[in-house]
Amino acid sequence: MNFLRKLLSTWRGRLLVFGVLAVVALMVAGLIASARRAAELAKQPPSPLSAVTPELSSLTAQPAMRWTFPAEQPEFVAAPVGGDSRRVLYALRDDPFSAWSLAVVRATTGERIATIGLGEKTAVPDCLVNDARALCAVGGPDGPELFFLDLDAGKVVQRVTGTGAAAGYPVGDGFLVWSPDSPPTRFRTDGTVVWRASGDSFVASPGAHTVYELHKKPGADGEGIVRSADDGRELVKITVKQGQQVRYLGYPGGFALERGGNAIRFFDGRGTALPGAVSAEGGQRLAAVTMSPVPRDDRFDAGLAYRPLPAAPVPVVLEERDDRDVVVVALDPAQKRNLWKKTVSQRDASKIQVWGVGKQVLVDAGAGHCYAFAAANGSGGAIPCSPVLGTDGEDLAMLTYFSDGRVDTSAVVAYRPGDAVHQRWRVPLDGAAAFGGGLYGTEGRLS
Using CA atoms, how far apart are residues 442 and 92, in angstroms rounded to an integer? Predict the structure, then answer.
């Protein structure tokens, strides 16, 4: 107290005390303001989530077959090859050596609406359905041929010769298709071209509304361009220095870009930069999806021989820290906050693959460690490392293969993600696939 009295007895001492008190007051005010902002942010509703694939009906109880094909049906029936919530396409032929045709079936009842022949093509067609129109790719020695179909009229509208093993998904009122040998091309339903990407490499994902293309220039800086998948409009252009690595991630609400360890920037679907960024200097990196397609199966000369992985419903960043396991972080960039963090069994972020199904984030950490987390709150956990067909929002329908002693076939297995993986049920279903929120197989519709 004597020291304080002496200090206050001089004008310099009083000035020093008042200065210290002012600094402390400013710090306290800053902490209070920061706490208020955090509280206000916590009260704000999160940005709305969009499902990257149609969600299935409840998987809690084992479903019965909703409908089956009539037993007297004469054709040899292959696996379902495409569909949406209203129609599903089955490939049919009279014998194992004849050409394929397509049965257009009503998804809710199994009623056949039309049958469409595909000429003398003998490879199994693969199809994308967009309302009453479809694009089917049929493989051949010179690459797939693309058939544009009117499903209600039951006819082929246009045929286009493609190159390479095609991949694609519906976009707008048409389709986006590409291959390792040809850039993404946005087709109308009549086979005409809306736009075609150019460049040296590309990234496109179902569920996202943008496409990234990289233009390399020998001996000079290149360009990275993000375009609207629907009409090809240029949304963002960046300079890419020689040897610089760029990571791009599209998601339903926008996209993110990271250049060579710099800050990760986020943009809305119109290409407008969002305030705030994630530092990429402390071990954080964008969980970017590569352009490398994922094999659909081992069928020879299949049309859509590669199925691109859907985007995650929310942007995801991976945090890599020394010798510790990687942390997966889901973000809400519009609100500038983390949604959740989860540690996975992997120390090398480059070995982790992230994609989506419904409103869930799927993570393959390698070495047999796979996970499913709800995009909104991170609930979930470990799952088997098997192909995921769909989700009802909590449980997953997954594909597994087995032999019945005579032939190899498949089954649909429902799992509840978690630390102790819980199998709910298992139903043998040859040719199992999911389209438009339904599970289908050679026998018919399961749910």
Answer: 10
